[in-house]
Specification:
With 639 residues, the chain is an alpha+beta fold. The chain has four domains: 168 residues, no CATH class; 119 residues, Pdz3 Domain, CATH 2.30.42.10; 177 residues, 2-enoyl-CoA Hydratase, Chain A, domain 1, CATH 3.90.226.10; 79 residues, no CATH class. It has 17 helices and 29 strands. The strands form nine sheets. A seven-stranded mixed β-sheet has the order 15-16-17-18-25-26-29, with helices on both faces. A hairpin with a 4-residue loop joins strand 9 and strand 10. Helix 5 packs antiparallel against helix 6 and helix 12 packs parallel to helix 15. The longest helix has 18 residues. The chain binds 2-acetamido-2-deoxy-beta-D-glucopyranose (6 copies). The site of one 2-acetamido-2-deoxy-beta-D-glucopyranose (NAG) has 5 residues, from loops. InterPro entries: ClpP/crotonase-like_dom_sf (IPR029045), PDZ_CPAF-rel (IPR056186), S41A_metabolite_peptidase (IPR052766). It comes from Dissophora globulifera. Keywords: Signal. This is CPAF-like PDZ domain-containing protein.
């Protein structure tokens, strides 16, 4: 890793200036995007990116079009528009009410100087909902990744929680030095406040986990590797060009003051040589040449798979740092890996051979993953495993069907509707027109009533009444139209004889959930079933010492992107009330909500369903060796 040097920047800036002089007689104008475009990857700096981003003046045409679309998707499709107004959410949530339409209207009235500021305000408004299903990003201002070499965590040592260095990617050996301050502020308070800007969860402890470094399983190298966390690695422009840290390494040494620049990595492969080509190549969508996609084709035996970002990813600087000697966990000393698929990894504990561990790192899974799971359970059974830990840490979801199948492997379905949750969607005139045209056709996404169960008849809908008979619901004083209660066509596993012979099947006492609260979307549905419905005891690790911590986050329901909704309109020849965004990018909102049994509070906002039975502390040992963490859970649960 070569720190970009100042003289080089000045040199290329002056070269760009000379080029301007040579090619045109116009007065010398600085084009910051020309400077940025002329840098190679190792020369990128915070300032170079910031200057290019901030060079574009506010463009009222782009702003007006953008805001019109953002307003409509939040006003008419976003299922939590009125739930988001809920005041005083109970612990473990700590999340203020948001009147998203009002916030968007204020953005519409504000005078902006720069285009970046306008888009960044929309981004921040959507983040403030603390729902990772909702997102706004444009490639124009998410074109680079910013990374800090210090990756932090917040372990508890000698009964006290502190901010410490998990990994120093610059290889100065600062691991486990205490970080006393960040930018002059107490480090724990700083990260706690900073992580409140993250959308990831309504629980501030989970947001802290999302901000900090952790380990994720890497299927290529078959081991746990570093994930930097959102504080140390982000696609949005950081507040400042550097971060100041004060480290205390050991109790007697002098404090170390560090000023760490952001390392900058490009996220798009798109070249540009000035502001004009930055706009056309990076900001605007490519000219439409692609074939219409048929990704909404619904196969009869396979419910639609829905996926989600942001995915926990391996630290980008790992690739830029050849074989860092300081990296934790090359293999696990106390666990034996029995095998893996593309979404699950299977271990037994050496010292507790009756304990099996299933790491479910994602719900983005093919049907073949079920064969992996059945083999894994069979191997557990042959190894005389009686107790199982299901480790959901860092799982951001995927297929709703996989969420249900996974639960049925432990608690086989006994009736048609015990594997699905009561749900509803918003209804407007335009959604009614769409659903009428889209009834029982392949490209209908979530707007095809034929994919839902009529809870009166317990059969699939045979007409579009679900959407045509809108039900008014009042939430936080605002009334709007929803569908009647329904549920998606359940995904039911065929009867599997072997399951009945396993000692853990239908036995919550033989199963434990382990999470860090970062089990989102489809993962949240699995966790809710196991814990909330089948009474499986859950442990969550990390967060803030003394506070309860969620098992899962953004249980919401089902998410859809603007692109996807507009493709459904187009495929069914109904005019969408939303134009695509002028810039290449994405808006996502949850459009279907689910409820736990016997309550009218959507699961997304039902704080009582979130806390784990036990919160565990990260320690320098268990944060680096997952087997140590599993042994702690097994000892607490079954000794
Ligand atoms: C990028 O810059 C580095 C450092 O100056 C230099 O060594 C390297 O050759 C350059 N790479 C390219 C592709 O220009
Ligand atoms: C895992 O992914 C590979 C590559 O896409 C695929 O060939 C394989 O079938 C997948 N395995 C499972 C269990 O889904
Ligand atoms: C499992 O238990 C059976 C019966 O007690 C025993 O015969 C067998 O060796 C055990 N298998 C393993 C892998 O420990
Ligand atoms: C939906 O379409 C399928 C085949 O295209 C047909 O067999 C089925 O009866 C239709 N269902 C309804 C409710 O119209
Ligand atoms: C759930 O599990 C706990 C702990 O094992 C037990 O005390 C409780 O009675 C169970 N509740 C239900 C409803 O089964
Ligand atoms: C954690 O949850 C338990 C059970 O709901 C409750 O009794 C306790 O007061 C909570 N602790 C905190 C710090 O909120």
């Amino acid at each position: 890793m070569i720190a970009p040097s100042l003289p080089r920047l000045i040199l290329s800036a002056s070269l760009a200036t000379i080029a301007t002089l040579l090619t045109s007689a116009a007065p010398i104008t600085q084009d910051p995007c020309a400077t940025l475009g002329g840098l190679n990857t190792t020369e990128l700096t915070y300032d170079a990116v910031a200057n290019c981003y901030r060079a574009f003046t506010y463009n009222s045409e782009i702003a007006t079009k953008t805001l019109a679309t953002v307003r409509t998707i939040f006003n008419d499709y976003y299922i939590f528009r009125d739930s988001a107004l809920t005041p005083d959410l109970q612990a473990p949530f700590s999340s203020a009410p948001v009147d998203i339409m009002n916030v968007l209207d204020l953005i519409g009235q504000k005078k902006y100087q720069s285009d970046y500021e306008f888009h960044n305000d929309i981004y921040k408004a959507v983040q403030s909902l603390h729902d990772a299903h909702a997102g706004y990003s444009v490639n124009c201002y998410n074109a680079y990744l910013f990374a800090q070499p210090l990756n932090l965590y917040a372990p508890v040592v000698d009964g006290k929680q502190s901010m410490r260095v998990f990994v120093d990617l610059a290889r100065r050996g600062y691991e486990d030095c205490e970080v006393t301050t960040i930018d002059g502020v107490d480090a724990l308070s700083y990260i706690s406040k900073w992580s409140d800007s993250l959308s990831y969860s309504k629980d501030s402890g989970v947001r802290q986990n999302q901000a900090l470094a952790t380990q994720i399983f890497n299927y290529e190298s078959e081991e746990f590797i570093l994930s930097s966390g959102e504080f140390a690695e982000r696609a949005t422009l950081p507040e400042n060009p550097y971060v100041d840290y004060v480290l205390q390494c050991g109790t007697t040494a002098d404090p170390i003051k560090l000023r760490e620049n952001w390392r900058v990595l490009p996220l798009t492969g798109k070249g540009f040589s000035n502001m004009d080509t930055y706009l056309s190549n990076v900001c605007y969508p490519p000219k439409p040449t692609e074939q219409p996609s048929n990704m909404y084709k619904r196969e009869l035996d396979q419910p639609v798979k829905r996926q989600l970002f942001p995915v926990a990813r391996k630290s980008a600087l790992l690739d830029a740092t050849p074989s860092p000697s300081t990296l934790p966990a090359q293999g696990l000393a106390q666990a034996v890996q029995m095998g893996h698929g593309n979404a699950t990894v299977w271990y037994t504990l050496k010292d507790k051979p009756n304990v099996g561990v299933i790491v479910v790192s994602t719900h983005v899974a093919e049907d073949a993953e079920l064969d992996v799971a059945l083999q894994g359970l069979e191997l557990f059974s042959k190894a005389n495993v009686t107790n199982i830990i299901i480790d959901f840490q860092g799982n951001t979801g995927g297929s709703v069907a996989f969420a249900s199948f996974l639960v049925q492997l432990f608690f086989p379905s006994t009736g048609q509707l015990d594997t699905s949750l009561r749900s509803d969607l918003r209804v407007t005139k335009s959604i009614q027109d769409l659903s009428t045209a889209a009834f029982n056709v392949s490209e209908a996404g979530l707007y095809d009533a034929a994919g839902y169960i009529d809870l009166g008849t317990k059969q699939l809908y045979t007409n579009d009444d679900l959407f045509l008979q809108s039900v008014p619901l009042t939430r936080n004083g605002r009334e709007t139209g929803y569908t009647e209660s329904t549920t998606l066509q359940p995904a039911i596993l065929p009867k599997i004889e072997a399951l009945a012979s396993y000692p853990w099947t239908n036995q919550p006492n033989n199963i434990r959930i382990l999470s860090d609260g970062r089990c989102g979307s489809a993962c949240a549905l699995s966790a809710h079933y196991l814990h909330g419905k089948y009474n499986v005891t859950a442990y969550s690790i990390g967060g803030v010492r003394g506070d309860n911590l969620s098992i899962f986050s953004f249980a919401g329901g089902a998410v859809s992107a603007l692109h996807d909704i507009n493709k459904i309109y187009a495929a069914n020849k109904v005019v969408s009330p939303m134009e695509d965004l002028p810039y290449e990018g994405d808006i996502r909102v949850p459009i279907l909500e689910v409820y736990a049994d016997s309550t009218d509070v959507p699961l997304e906002y039902d704080a009582s369903k979130y806390p784990a039975n036990y919160r565990m502390d990260f320690t320098p040992e268990n944060a680096r060796s997952r087997d140590v963490m599993w042994t702690q859970v097994a000892t607490h649960a079954w000794n």
